[in-house]
Amino acid sequence: MSKVTAMTFIERKKNHEKITVLTAYDYSMAKLLDENGVDCLLVGDSLGMTMLGYEDTLAVTMDDMIHHTKAVKRGVKNALVVADMPFLSYHISDEGAVINAGRFIKEAGAHAVKLEGGYQVKSKIEAIIAAQIPVMGHLGLTPQSVNMFGGFKVQGKTEQQARKLIDEAKMLEEIGCFAIVLECVPEKLARLVSEQLSIPTIGIGAGAGCDGQVLVIQDLLGMNKDFVPKFVKTYADLSSVIGSAVKAYCEEVKTGAFPEEKHTFKIDDEIINKLY
Ligand code: KIV
């Protein structure tokens, strides 16, 4: 497989080839996903929940994101690594947005950044793209706006909201974004938006009409049974697999069944006898 770039995304859309995106937050998972052909690894600020145990993404810092992006990048050979800009890392000024986006490229080796929002962040996206950093947009349910939305709710259901979403998607394309995540948007609206753009849409809870899909890796692998959103398909039951493995390990340590002879290292009896 050859290296995926932001340009590959546009080519894929032209050729009607779907794009696969998964979140990744650490080296070993990134390596597995990359080796198994995922096009793009998103170091999402969802790591606030999956890795750090927060209730939402708002407390995630630039340093948290840089730390995890560096680890992901070390595991990747071919996938495009996109780093999510955390809350307040791009809202304050155009200059601040470029400095923080630049940190992801210079310090962490990311290939692109993602940031949430439409008109409100237009000048920030333009400034980042002017600095030659590819930007992935994000519309619909943008989790950093959870307090403005009054919860994690499907977006774009009214005519006014739907028109705004279409306008903002076109604006993001015009100013140079190479792709747009559409999160929790009605299926027919996401399809319409996708048909009107020449850059790909990457859906999460937005249906099959998008040009690609993204899921949080822990959701796909069934690692969190407490809450499974409607749009998630669970492809494995890792919480049961991990649970059984850990229980078996604890049992075998307690009974002495682990470690066995084959797990140990040797020393000459002559040396050991001198130590008694
Ligand atoms: O942070 C994240 O994981 C995301 C995806 C769900 C799109 O933004």
Could you please describe the fold and organization of this structure?
The protein has 276 residues and is of the alpha/beta class. The protein is 42% helix and 13% strand. It has 12 helices and 8 strands. The chain has an 8-stranded parallel barrel with strand order 1-2-3-4-5-6-7-8, surrounded by 7 helices. Helix 5 links the parallel strand 3 (80-84) and strand 4. The N and C termini lie far apart (58 Å). The model has no long low-confidence stretch (mean pLDDT 97). 3-methyl-2-oxobutanoic acid binds at residues 23, 42, 44-46, 84, 181, 183, 204, 214, 216. 3-methyl-2-oxobutanoic acid (KIV) is lined by residues 23, 42, 44-46, 84, 181, 183, 204, 214, 216.
